[in-house]
Design a protein that fits this description.
The chain is of the alpha/beta class and 424 residues long. It contains 13 helices and 18 strands. It has helices spanning 77-87, 93-109, 127-139, 161-171, 186-203, 221-231, 251-263, 272-278, 294-299, 323-333, 339-348, 351-357, 380-386, and strands at residues 2-9, 18-23, 26-32, 38-43, 49-50, 53-58, 112-120, 144-150, 175-176, 206-211, 238-242, 267-270, 303-306, 372-375, 390-395, 398-402, 408-412, 415-420. The strands form four sheets. An eight-stranded parallel sheet has the order 6-7-8-9-10-11-12-13, sandwiched between helices. The longest helix has 18 residues, at 186-203. The chain binds fe (ii) ion. Fe (ii) ion is lined by residues 57, 59, 118, 210, 309.
């Protein structure tokens, strides 16, 4: 007897009328029109059944702190970093944990079941590290949280950052972070990339760096990141996050750079909601969009994912943990409007993001974890268009969240009792 049988589902790859059978938290069969006894059976009515959303780039130590101690007036990355510096000494573990857990609740409701979060290690107390390690353990039954040791003030620029980063890794933080473009000089940035990749190689860890988050076309640290990835045998385990300077780089240089990134099997993470608001702030008109070159990276075979980055914090005043909103913005800013490109944007917040995190057992296939989201949409493009309601969210076959389908009851003159589903 199966634990759960979902039938008549549409899968993200376009297969329709599919059945997904779940036993002991694992998907045991995916086939068309399967008939089998199950404790629970559900007719998906042709709607989209997807593996869960994955956020490969977030800052959970800062989330839901909007307005503390004040609001970012200029809207720039640099004022955001300064504001975070003002907030850090005021943080308490209790408040941070409460906000992080509240965000994880939002995430689950939106079908977001895996998050890679950076955690600032430039605080000698390592208060946020300890707090998020506790949150990671607490949410483990329902959400995969991966932590990146992030030296926000620069691993070489801040006097205790390197020692703190190593302490954080000793405590169990999963991934090595960095921020080369924020170091004092370009050369220091280069050194920081080399140093941090060496630490990751020694410890057998992955790397995820904030890299070239600027409009400066000469910010080219991603080139060093790709080179160090090859030199240290880290292929497939290194991510360049943001990479916004690529938007402004010379096309000839980019043609060489993208080939090097592909050769290094670098993952790229763009954060469309945040970089469309933070970048171009020093431009008059025209204002650059400041998103990295997503279609070109994908065309070169590079794994590109989209991250949420921020929700209600010193850098961004909006957000709700909705990865469809993230992908929707990415689609617009990168002008990825063909059917194929829109589906790639859906992949950027699901399967591609899972690859960045190195998640095992992710997907809808026999042997995968029964982590699933049923959406009020018939395909990935409709899900993006509607930022579709997450009707049901399962983890290991257990129902975690339900939201009622959205429908407007219309009261139109001469047409009583009309309902609009805003689809078809
Ligand atoms: Fe970030």
């Amino acid at each position: 007897m199966l634990d759960l049988l979902i039938h008549n589902a549409t899968l993200p790859d376009g297969r329709t009328a599919m059945s997904v059978a779940v036993q002991n938290g694992t998907i045991v069969e995916v086939s068309a029109g399967l008939q089998a006894p199950a404790h629970q059976a559900l007719d998906a009515q042709g709607q989209l059944l997807s593996p869960p959303f994955v956020d490969p780039h977030f800052h959970m130590d800062a989330t839901l702190s909007y307005g503390l101690p004040r609001i970012n007036q200029s809207g720039t990355l640099l004022e955001g970093i300064a504001l975070w510096g003002e907030l850090k000494p005021l943080l308490t573990a209790e408040a941070l944990i409460e906000r992080a857990l509240a965000y994880c609740d939002w995430a689950v409701a939106k079908g977001l079941l895996a998050i890679r979060t950076h955690v600032d290690v430039c605080d000698d107390r390592l208060l946020a590290v300890d707090a998020l390690l506790q949150v990671k353990q607490q949410v483990a039954p329902y959400l995969d949280l991966q932590l990146v040791a992030f030296p926000q003030d620069g691993v070489l620029r801040a006097p205790t950052a390197l020692a703190n980063l190593k302490r954080a890794l000793d405590k169990g933080v999963d991934v090595v972070g960095g921020i080369p473009h924020f170091e004092r000089t370009y050369e220091q940035g280069t050194q920081s990339v080399k140093l941090l990749c060496e630490i990751a190689a020694e410890r057998g860890l992955r790397v995820d760096m904030h890299c070239d988050e600027s409009d400066d076309p000469l910010s080219r640290h991603v080139e060093t990141l790709a080179f160090e990835t090859q030199r240290l045998g880290l292929r497939g385990r290194v991510t360049g996050s943001h990479l916004t300077s690529m938007h402004s780089m010379d096309n000839y240089f980019v043609s060489k750079l993208i080939a090097l990134m592909a050769e290094s099997q670098l993952h790229a993470v763009a954060n469309p909601l945040i970089n469309i608001t933070l970048q171009g702030r020093f431009d008059s008109y025209p204002k650059r969009r400041g998103l990295t070159r997503v279609p070109e990276l994908l065309a070169a075979g590079i794994n590109v994912a989209f991250g949420h980055d921020c929700v209600m914090d010193p850098w961004y005043s909006l957000g709700s943990g909705d990865m469809l909103e993230v992908a929707h913005m990415g689609l617009h800013v990168a002008q990825m409007t063909s059917q194929t490109a829109m589906r790639q944007c859906f992949d950027a917040v699901t399967v591609n993001a899972a690859q960045v995190m190195g998640l095992e057992g992710y997907g809808i296939a026999p042997g995968c974890h029964a982590d699933l989201v049923l959406l009020q949409a018939r395909n990935p493009v409709e899900a993006l268009r509607l930022r579709a309601t997450r009707l049901k969210v399962w983890r290991r076959g257990q129902l975690l969240a339900e939201t009622a389908p959205v429908a407007a009851q219309l009261h139109l003159p001469g047409r009583p009792g009309q309902t609009s589903w805003i689809s078809r």
